[in-house]
Amino acid sequence: MLLVVWYDNGMKRRIFLPALLVLVGSIASLIIMGGGVAHAQGGGGVGSGGSGSGGSGGAQSRHGWGWRLYDASGAGPSGGFKSGSWSAAKAACTGYSSNVAVFVINTAPGATQKQVGYDYHTIYFSPSIFSGYQTSSPYIPVPTAKTNYDLLPASVRSGHTWGSDVGWFCYGIVPPTDVCPNLAGAQATVPSGYIKDGAGNCVIPDRAPTINVDTINCIAATISGVAIDGDWSGEIDVHIYVGGAAGSGASRYVRRTSGHRFTFVDPNPNPMRISGQRYYLYAIGVNSSGAANGTNVAFGGNPVSMGPCNSATCTIDTFPAQMLVGDGNQFTVSMRVSYWGAPLAVGNPALTVQVRDPNGVITTSTPSYTVSGSSPATLTSDPMSFNSNIPGTYQMQWSLAGGGLNTLCPGGNNGSWNNPRIGNAGYKPYFNVNGGDILSGGSITAWNAGSGGGFAGAGTQLAAFAGGNITGFITGSGLSSAGNGTGLSFANESSVVDPANGKYGGGFGVTHYAPTLSSGSPHAAGTIDVSTLASGVYNITGDVTLTGTVRTGVNIVLNITGNVYIQDNIGYGAYSDSTQIPRLTVNATGDIFVDNDVTSMRGIYYAAGTFYSCSYGLGSPVSLGSLAGYSDCNHQLTVYGAVVADKMILSRTWGNIRAVPGVPAQAAENFVYSPELWLAPSGAASGKSSPQFDLYQSLPPVL
Question: Could you say which of 343, 372, 387, 523 would form a disulfide bridge with 538 (CB–CB 3.0 to 4.6 Å)?
């Protein structure tokens, strides 16, 4: 709809609300749209009531119009608002004014008349006697309405223009009540961030203080941090209780912040440095004038633990992982220590070392120690000794006690043996070669006690030749001129002699041995009792099991294409002169297995494969990975003669390189190169025509 206005000759304004009419250009600027307007808190309100519009029989000006007052607590215009609402006007004016001035147009005369709120436009401004304009109560003249409108705060009138888009406003300003008499200016409501106190003043509510710890220095015995109270820009106090919380009777110390920071220095730091201490911190709250108000706050990290400053950590030790039964052993222990004050005094704190043998017997010692370097320093014990007299597992742990350096190593707990150092003591069975030499295409490895142990253990009375290393095996054991166990050692290695590390020679080559086989008579494989054989050479294809005793005067050669199992002791018959000496030679293309119960063998044995000194049968060497294997091989084996093999696995467990109760210092395997090998001719029966020897003397080589 369009609102069309013009003036007649009598300066009487008329408003026509014709049927729909479309206008363009400047006339369009007279279209006024209604809408609600926001108002400031406590400042009343202004709003628009809607544009003039309507059709025939609608809100016609001939029924009267004007500014009418309504009670802010009442019902408002009977016809409502063309645009907007009475509820908005009422809400804006309630508490600010008891009346609302609304520009209304009457819709009908008499009892059916209703008032509808409209915007007030310049076309209605003066003269006040304009025909149809209502001025009697409850209506008010335009100048009176304008005067009261102008009394509204500028912030409320902002965005509205009198005579253009003002449809209602709060009439008769009621000055707001000053709810905060202690604050500058009149306050209609309590400002945000304030509360009313008991005296009726508006104050900032009391805020609890805050406290934080950011630095702990054990050596300096200090605790530092920040404490702030939001009610007060100045400094506040911090209370520190040592050993207990507030109210527990613990010692209390007061520190004033500076720049909101505080630092506490423990005046008696030694207990903390040695054993550790607990500290409880509190920020003391104040009000806006800086006076304590009883609102105290405990630090969220209470108690603050500090110390002990002294500390020790386990480092290295030299406890032997492998030991020989019957040996004396030495070791040391070390720790890394951090401490305050002067260097540690030797013996304070005390170092304690415990060794537990396989029977559970514990030996305790308190060795002296040295401390090298400043804190943190290295504490190293003097050497300690113990004897590994029985086989089994030995355990060791050590501890430091005193001065806050209370530490159990290497990881036990409260004196228990949860994680001790472990060392295993065992026997070292060895082999001996008597009356002859030993030759190896590879290495010779055994156990020997060395010069410190009198060269007890593995060795040969004469020479040893090896294509590799000679380790733990001496030579010339029966010769006073052999020299330190290495006099007749010949090995093909670069590090020639190093007795301290068990190496007794080097620098020589060895030619691999292979027997010369003579032709012979065929013989069946299987079990062969040598006592049933006559002198001669026997060719056998297949695996062979040997038993029995070679008869007096019988010379036997067995050429075996296969493996050999020595099931029982192999002996020689009795003889009274060199013409009756028996002889057995076994040449095998495979391996030779010696039964674990065999204790004596006579003859010459050659294996192109491996010679096993302890077996259960053909292809079944005993494994020493179990106690049963160790027990089954705990028998001495003596070979009277010679053994040649590509590899020799000597696994007898009899004896030890050092005598201990119940275990003799005897060889597990003894290879005796007896005169029988020289006095009995090879390859044929003994006889009167054979060379006769009256004396045999073993001599060292002349180099």
Answer: 523
